[in-house]
Amino acid sequence: MILVIADDLTGAAEIAGIGLRYGLKVRVCTEIIQEVTEDLLVISADTRSLTENQAVTKVEYLIKSSQQYKPSLIYKKIDSVLRGHVLAEIKAIQDFLVQKNCLIVPTNPSMGRRIQDGKYYVGDKLAHETAFAHDPEFPIQSSEVINMLRAKPTDQVRILAQPILPLQGITVAEVTQKEDLTKWASQWAKIDLLVGGAEFFASILSNLGYNPVEKIFSPQQTALNCLYVSGTTFSDSVEKIQNHASHTGGVCYLPQELVSQPIDSEEFNQSLNRWASEIIQCFKQHQVVIIAIEKQLDTTKITPAELAKLIAKVVKKVWNQVHLAEILIEGGATSAAILAEIPLQNFLPTEEFAQGVIRMQSLERPSTYLTLKPGSYAWPQAVTYAQL
Question: If 0-12 CB within 10 Å is exposed, 13-18 middle and 19+ buried, where does residue 278 land?
C-alpha cells in the first residue's frame, strides 16, 4: 500500500485522481482510519491552515499512527508553489522515520510551473509576479526557491539540475519539462523521503510499473440541489461568477456584515441565519446555487482561516435543510473547513475530470458527491455543473 500525506484537501484529491488514472484502488480521508484495503491511501492533514507548531504536531501524529498500515512507500504531497510549512513538516517525518535524505520535486511542468536556475516560474513569469503574490496566507514575495521554502543556512537545502547520487540532506530538483520528472523519479528507490507535487507522483507510479487506464466518467444527469462553493478570490473564478449572477442568478454572495462582526456574536449569528435562509430559498428556483466572495468585499477584519470557517458554517446550515446531491468546492482551505463542519471524513474517488479536479463519493452519505479543485485551477468542460 502507498501512503500519501497531503497538506490540504484539494492536494489530497489531486493525488487520489492520479491514483485513479493509474488504475489503483484509492481512499481519501481526513483522519486515521482503522482498516485499509485500497492500493493508495491519501490523508489530508490540512496543515497549511495551521501554525507551524500545530502543523508539525499534526504530521507527527499522522506519520506515527499510519505505521499500522505498513506502507511500502510514503509520499509527502506539498503545494506546487511551495506554500505552507514545507520544511518543518519534512523534518517531522524524517525525525520520526530516522531518514537521511529527502528529494523535493514540487513543479507541475504541464501547467507551466517549473524551477530553473534556482528560481520558480509560473508560465513566463516569476512566481512573485503572479497572483500568488497576493495569497492571503502564504504570499510569494521572492521567486528564489530557497526563499520560498523559508530555508535557513542550517537547513542545508541544495538545488540540483541533475541527480548527483548519493543525495545528502534536502535536495530540490530543477524541473522544466516532463522528461526531467522522469529522470528524477527513476531515482526513487535511493531516496528516503519523496516530497512533491502531483506530476512527480505520477512519474513515480510510472517507475513502479503502473500504467494509465482509460478515463471513464459516470453519466451525470441534471444536477438536483448542487451547491457550488467558491472560496477563492482568483480573478478568473470571480469574473465568471459575476457574469453568471448578472445573467442567470442563483448566486448568494457573502454579506459584508458577516466579515465585520465578531464571529459567534449575536449579531453574527443573526446575519449568518439570514444568509443561510437566502441560500436555502435560492434552491427553490435554481438547481445549482453558488456561494461566492465578491471582488470588492473588504476582508481586512477577518483572517483567511476565519473566512473559510464562516463559509463552512453557512454550508452546514444549508446541509441540515437541503439534501445536497453534489457539492463543488474551490479552494483547499475552504474544502477542509466545510468537511470539518458537516462533517465528512471518508471518501472513495470516482472520477478525475482533469488534473486536480476530482469527484468523490462520501462513504458517510453515499448519495452525496464532492468535486474539489484548487482555487488557481480552471474547471474542465467535463464538470457540467461548473460551466458558468
Answer: middle
